[in-house]
Amino acid sequence: MGQGAGRLQPGSRGWYAFWSMAVIQGDGMNRMRCIAFLLLMTACEPVDQERIRTVAALEVVPRDEADRRLLVEIFRRHALAAGFHVDDVSRKWQQFERTSALPPSFHSSFNVGVWQGADDEENQMLADDRGHIGRIWITFPKGADADRATQFREALIADIDRH
Q1: Residue 156 scores a pLDDT above 80
Q2: Which residues are within 8 A (CB) of 140 and not within 5 positions of it... i.e. 6 or more apart?
Q3: Is there a contact between 137 and 59 (Cβ–Cβ < 8 Å)?
Q4: FRET label pair with 31: which of 46, 112, 128, 153, CA 20 to 30 Å apart?
Q5: What is the radius of gyration, based on Cα positions, of the chain?
Q6: Is 125 exposed, middle or buried (0-12, 13-18, 19+ CB in 10 A)?
């Protein structure tokens, strides 16, 4: 191998050149890791920061478990009307907490999201009390379809205010 093989050299094509050389010159396992990394990087695309920008937030403090169930039911009703769905992972998160060494600032008793698409392509709302148990913060991103997201958000907030 020549001098500097597999290292970045002035005038090279940056990281692509580095990883290409690692794939070409690497042994079996390193070659597989490099190929997997290259495939992963080609599948990634930048996130549209404007689409995920939080445009509204509110805090809800339920009095008891019945209030928490009512809040999830309100989420489900509005998600269904808008063509979205609800994922309530509160219990799963609590099970995960019991088996992990998370600091208290990551503890949560309420973790619910409203999503668009069968594969959760776009978040429409997140509600959790992570780091502030019992005080649920509900946040809404702008969304790719801002008009649809606005209609969903305004109707949901109005319904929460009525209760």
Answers
A1: yes
A2: 54, 55, 56, 57, 124, 125, 149, 153
A3: yes
A4: 46
A5: 23
A6: buried
Question: Measured between alpha carbons, how far is residue 162 from residues 71, 150, 157, 158 in Å?
Answer: 12, 18, 9, 6
Rounded-to-integer distance, Cα 130 and Cα 112, Å? 11
pLDDT digits (tens, 9 = 90+) for 12-32: 444 444 444 444 455 555 556
Q: Is the pLDDT of residue 126 over 90?
A: yes
Give the integer Cα–Cα distance in Å for 23 and 61.
Answer: 54
d(Cα 104, Cα 129) in Å, to the nearest integer? 12
